[in-house]
Amino acid sequence: MNQADLFEDVVTLPDPRGQADYDRLVGLDDYKARLVKETLLLVDPGQLRDWNKKHHKGELAAVEYFHSRPPLFVLAGDVGTGKTALARSYGNQVARLAKVRVELFALSLNTRGSGAVGEMTRLISGAFKQVREAVGRTRGSDGKAGRGIILLIDEADALAQSREAAQMHHEDRAGVNALIRGIDDLAAERLPVAVVMCTNRLDAIDPAVRRRAAAVFEFVRPSHEQRLVVLKAGLAGSGFSDRDLGHLADATGEAHGRHYGFTYSDLTQRLIPTLVLDAFPEGGLVGARAVEIAKGLKPTPPFREQMPTGVHGAQHGR
Fold first, then answer.
1. Is the dihedral of CA 239, 285, 266, 111 positive or negative?
2. Element (H, E) at 97
3. Best exposed site among 48, 79, 155, 282 by fewest CB in 10 Å?
């Protein structure tokens, strides 16, 4: 089975650009630390054993719970809140700390197939098989793996949608079963593979998949303080005063008649480039003008507000 048919891309980490993307994610420190720790222990479970010996004389029973946990992590929340950016970049930190190569396999939505009987199951099973073959049997005598894998499933509700939906196609049900088997097999074989699912619709994910998640991280839009950090970083060298940046952070928050503020991607991909292009090439950035522009930009609506009426509680069709 052709790798290009199963994965959007396969990226080898560490990568300087990916590390920069990881470093730019602010306000997500707890999520970043947890994902890195979890994946480090998949690559090198001996670290937990050594920690147990050092701090608990090797007697902490809770360590046994890590031996059969499904290596599944769900990143859920609104659009533009950093889920996919974190999933794609945190492997750089894992590679640096573990001193091993980490590969990011981004599963393609083509694995849903065309609807032919057995096709979706075959494609998903093939993707997990290729991941297992890629990681190989590379653990040393100390238990440390020679490489780690992050299997990214973006828009996970398209592949792992709940089987409880009455209108769900039988091929989709079979595909979810294959996905669950793939995750369970990784846990049983104790391979250094982390499965990271990103979704805007946590309630659409199959309950059996959610139950297997070692952790579910719920992402929200940045607070005033977090927006301020992003703006300070992106506008460093602009000459803006703290007062200017504070007004800009205010302008990108909730506004009259709008109960939501800017997302991370609204700030970094829309607002800040717009400020630069507005000033270029005639002159430099000006704080008052930046605030004016920010007030005129509309942030991305929350995901549920983008959905057509009546779709909120239903599954998308094939």
1. negative
2. helix 91-98
3. 282
Pairwise CA distance, residues 299 & 112, whole Å: 31
Place of tokens 């991280």: 217
* Rounded Cα distance, 314 and 298, in Å: 28
Return the exposure string of 2-12: e unless at least 16 CB atoms fall within 10 Å of the residue's CB, then b.
Answer: eeeebbeebbe
Amino acid at 293: I
Distance in angstroms (rounded) separating the CA atoms of residues 201 and 199: 5
pLDDT string in tens for the chain (318-residue length): 677 779 999 999 999 999 999 998 988 999 999 999 999 999 999 999 999 999 999 999 999 999 889 999 999 999 999 999 999 999 999 999 999 999 999 998 777 665 565 788 898 999 999 999 998 766 777 778 889 999 999 999 988 988 887 667 788 888 999 999 999 999 999 999 999 999 999 999 999 999 999 999 999 999 999 999 999 999 999 999 999 999 999 999 998 789 999 999 999 999 999 999 999 999 999 999 999 999 999 999 998 766 544 443 333 333
Closest Cα partner for 114 from 171, 166, 182, 165?
A: 171
pTM for the model: 0.88
